[in-house]
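Thread title: Can someone regenerate the structure for this chain?

I was given the following input by a collaborator and told the matching structure tokens would be attached. They weren't. Posting the sequence so someone can regenerate them.
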Amino acid sequence: MDYKISMIVPVYNAQESLDSAINSIINQTIGFENIELILVDDNSNDKSQEIIRKYANEHDNIIGVFLSENSGLPGKPRSTGIKYAKAPYLMFLDADDEYLPNACEKLYDTIISENSDFVMCAHFWNLDGEKMKVNILHNCEDNSDIININPLLNQMNFIRLSYNHVAPWGKIFNKELIVENDISFPEDTLAEDTYFYFKALINSKKVTLLPNDKLYIYNVFESQNSVIHDHNLKKFNYFFEGFKNVMDLLKDVPFTKERILFSNMSAILLIFSNLSRKDKKENISKIYDFEISLDQEVNFQKKELDFLNNLILKRHFTLAIIVSDLYSLLYNNKKIKKFYRKFNHRH
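Best answer:
Regenerated them for you:
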């Protein structure tokens, strides 16, 4: 069977949401027979493997891949899925999210008609049942339904594509771009999606945005923890090392990295703020050393983060730790946390 799209889904303990995710692909208007659905289980210990096997037994175009050890991070299952993919175009879905029924058809038709390296659609954030559209078009007054951008043509183009829409979902990639440029997800860090996105971006000549087509639902439930939202020293180190790799990847790009620094350094300070006092004391100098190695300052556009960051840059580490404790208390207030999530994904 010649499939049009290989859809890759990393799975770990997703028994509550996996049926919905899978059925959102089975019910695509492009016709499920045109999709190869690759479910990569990261050694789940709930009923996820049982669910995958059930669907794989019912459909020839559903492939279950079962990792023998839990990697603990999203990179390995996603990269493993790429190795299994046979279709000329790649898409990704997280196991607790969903695509709208016309998503594959719209993204596929666009990447074919525009001859793009990859296409990105708008999406919804479903925050505890409250859906909000996330704007993916920045620094551009164009109201067109389809907008093409050459990422490295000039500084403004690079900035437009440097906002924090780096997750692999909500996009369709030409597999040729991914394979020929050896693009994969780092398996031993976080910010693996940022690395994948920017490696794809700097190797692309044409990226297409669909700012008016909301085709993906990203579910966030504050009652549930995830690899991203559960903050501890391991996650801090995973994210910190991953972001250093991103900046190293982009070192020869001759344009400002201000948006990339803003979103990722904000995440680093947030994760840092939620560490224990002991871990903060032992790791605060990492942030200082990294920032002074940069060739540009970080503008957080948030007074509280600028204040905390300036204390670190002035080596007022004890006071910075006290301020970060307060920041952690404020952020973990559910109402404030919800406001931050809304703000961060509208800007």
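The two ends are 42 Å apart (CA to CA).
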